[in-house]
Amino acid sequence: MLLQISLTVTMVMLSLAMILILIRVWLGPGLADRVIALDILMTTGIAFIAVYAMMTAEPVFIEVSVVLALIAFLATVAFSYYMDRRRS
Amino acid sequence: MFLDILISICLLSGGFFILLSAVGILRMPDLYMRISAATKATTLGVGLIVLSTALFFGTLPIVSKSLLVIVFIFLTAPVAGQILARAGFLSGSPLWPGTHINEYKEEEPGKEEK
Fold it and tell me: What does the pLDDT look like over B39-87, one tens digit per residue?
């Protein structure tokens, strides 16, 4: 019972955080602001999937968060190399 | 019951830290402050939530995968933040007017500055 309540509250917190980060993606004055916001959005997605795995008691979803943790770093590094190349 | 309380504490504090980093990324005035706020708080929050997943399932494969996620995020988040701050600085992202120290500009005088 306690676990269900805290899982739901955490889900609500993460959804609120995603909405705030998406506002920054929408506003973001430069490309770098949008890229860091998307990186944090992906990291929040890892936490979201972990909480979802606990809600459904399905341990398979943990592997999704492993893959997402790998991809988020690659996406950020690729974007920053793109910004470096575009400058020169 | 004790384990439930421990998992709930980890979950709620992790969600709180992620929410705090989202507020930080929305309210900070500068690209570099946004990177600083977002990277640290989100790393701690995701670490706590994945740790609570490891406590919840408690079997060896899940615990090792959770530790893999935690170690990987703790390794890559500072690197990603640093690379992105460097790319943002070199492509001319403005500093906050209250910034006093700018050492990178004097380190590389050959680069063009905007």
Answer: 999 999 999 999 999 999 989 999 999 999 999 999 999 999 999 988 8
- Domain harbouring B86, CATH code: 1.10.287
The third-level CATH classification (topology) of the domain covering A2-87 is Helix Hairpins (1.10.287)
Residues of A in contact with B21 (CB under 8 A): 17, 40
pLDDT of residue B108: 53
A62 touches B: beta carbon within 8 Å: yes
Pick from B12, B77, B93: CB nearest A10: B12
Q: Tens digit of pLDDT for each residue in A34-83?
A: 999 999 999 999 999 999 999 999 889 999 999 998 898 898 999 888 98
Residue B90, domain extent: 2-107
- The answer to whether B93 contacts A32, with C-beta atoms less than 8 Å apart, is yes
Give every CB contact of residue A37 below 8 A, 6+ residues apart in sequence: A21, A22, A24, A25, A28, B25, B34, B38
Nearest CA in chain B to A7: B11
**Which of A17, A30, A72 comes nearest B18 by C-beta?**
A17
A57 Rama sector, left if φ>0, alpha if ψ -120 to 50, beta otherwise: left
ipTM value of the model? 0.89
Q: Is the separation of the CB atoms in B10 and A7 below 8 Å?
A: no
